[in-house]
Design a protein that fits this description.
22% strand; 5 strands; Alpha-Beta Plaits; single chain; five-stranded antiparallel sheet
Length: 188
Amino acid sequence: MKEHTKNLLSIFCPLGLLLLAGLLFLGNNRPFPILSGMIEKARKEQISSERKIRQLEEGISEKQEDLNQLNEIRKRAIPPHYSDIVGTFRSRVEQVFYASGAQVKTISTPRQLKGLPGIDLYEINLTAEIQIAELVSVMESLNKSPTFLWRSLYLRPNNVINPDHININAVLGAVCFKDGDNQNAVRK
């Protein structure tokens, strides 16, 4: 019986190899059914992972734009090392308006607004009589660092028929980052 088994093995082994070779070479390059399911699953996972990576990269680029804008605001904000931010804000606004030749009628005491943690917001109300050229000069001066923001600006002529000045009613704002936050901005 051992000889019979040897004869069968000697016949079936080469026959099995021929059949396997035929499937591989004559199978029109189709993958095995078992492997095709695994390959398709791996492709779907790869596509899903690539989509997630693209979404994360887009999210990071959007966040980077926001961080760049925040750092730009930090650069132009009132530095936190001023001991009297309120006094600095008011005196700088007065100085700019008087240097331009405007006639300041009223200027309020700066008040601190509720802001985000680590950020102090201040605003000041101002009314003045000014010419157009002087107003342009004021706007340019207030746009220099530290920058003051025009929260609102109302213009109206002092005389409807023959205006020689403009009456303005403005609210100016200032931003100040607290020490720890400003140091972090410098590092980045």
